[in-house]
Amino acid sequence: MNAKPTVQVNDRPKAPNRLKHILTAVILLLLLWGSAVQTESSLGELASGLPNMLDLLREMFPPRWTYFNNIVEAMLETIRMALVGTTLGAIAAIPVALLCASNLTRTGWIYYPVRFLLNLVRTIPDLLLAALFVAIFGLGPLPGIFALAVFSMGLIAKLTYEALETIDHGPLEAMTAAGANSLQRIIFAVIPQIQAHFASYVLYTFEINVRAAAILGLVGAGGIGHYYEVTLGFLEYDKTCVIIIFTLAIVLLIDYMSMKLREKLL
Amino acid sequence: MMNRAMKTKLDTQAVRKPKKKAYRWLIYAALALIYIWAFSGIPYTGIKDSAGQIFKAIVAGIFSPDWDYVYLPDGEDLLRGLLDTLAISMLGTFISTLICIPFAFWAATNMSSSRWVSGSGKMFLSFIRTFPEVVMAILFIKAVGPGSFAGVLALGLHSVGMLGKLFADEVENLDKGPVEALIATGASRLQIMWFAVIPQVLPGFLSYTLYRFEINVRSATILGIIGAGGIGTPLIFALSSRNWERVGIILLGIIVMITIIDMISGSIRKKLV
After folding, report:
1. What is the pTM of this model?
2. What is the CATH number of the domain that holds A239?
3. Nearest Cβ partner of B43 from A32, A38, A140?
4. Domain ranges, residue A79
5. Which of B51, B138, B225 is facing A228, going by the closest CB pair?
6. Cβ neighbours of residue A87 under 8 Å, at least 6 residues apart?
């Protein structure tokens, strides 16, 4: 490092070309302008609608706390739906994740199609799945549970197979050298490495599912979401407010507990 | 090097299994109780007789979709519905990005002097995050009437919660070096922002914005179910009128659109970071 600095003024790095940035900005603005036209968005409409919304917010307070007793059972059902849905999804996710992991399955013509199918499943949002399942199974918490299970399967399988691909290969090779079959390899070399991550992903998915389950009722798939329609339909905004506050409290509580558990796991 | 005595000792002594602690059984018992409670509360009303039939009809609908619905010369068709959905998510993402930047700096611990300020910012963001976007959309429908604009506003406000948190994390990971260098040269606050902070956080911000855009496209497809515009409205109509071929084409359209958007956005994000 004794050499004299030989950098001259001309050797300075050039500023990156501006044209690309300007073009990007122009395209972006055009897209946004097009979107605004397509969605008929206008600030004027928002300004004229805002008093309506403030009225609505004013009607929400004070919340009618007595309504609380009517929705406790629905809230418990929501939590149950999330719990059962997440569990079913997690169980279904295990074989799918194993099939997707390129270091465990090894044959390209198995893991590429499975991954493709998994990606297809993951494109469908949970509320849409619920609407489909309501059409198939009829109203009630059952279609909600199935929707959550399919959605959780997609999410957990994706997170798990990505974690599976980063596991240490040492134990796997040791098991192979000892003559283990593939089931033994999975039980003794893969599961101990992945179980904490898997549990953490399941908890994370459970958090998401509690939020999702709270609105599934809007399409008739059980849980507390149904009461939004009931109270909003009768313009009883003070009751809606109770639902919102109750849901927020439960979601925050579950998030907090799940976060603490996940911190302990990893 | 290990000495010989130690080595033989290791050879003969098998590795012991770690002892299971007693409180593990408590955890298992609690889990079992929770599961008994959860499963016993689910009403097993049985599956409708028509379930299999409808399922077959939907699958058949996906494989023989109503192609005519892709483009209708007059009004409501698949392409316009998807375009509407895209427009909602694009504008919603843009609005939330604009709103969340000040919140991100408010919630970042290294940007404010007291922990209390950033803590309150984080609380506020997580409050917005837990507020379901569909409920937000219902409230906005009351304000601006049903239609895409309500969806835009709902997405725009809801995304602030998550984007603000991600942006705040990005600001917290900022390298202090350039900022201190600029302070040493006597730069103003605005100049520090412009030359030291923005260039560092911009790639992260853009990447998170794209990520949120992907999520918003998914959300925008369901906003129509409650009347906030996009492809969800024709889908729910098709479902309730049992027009399975149309359900099939709409599902296909949604899957194709989201897959393409994920691919484009994913490749841009890879380049950014």
Report:
1. 0.82
2. 1.10.3720.10
3. A140
4. 64-265
5. B138
6. B35
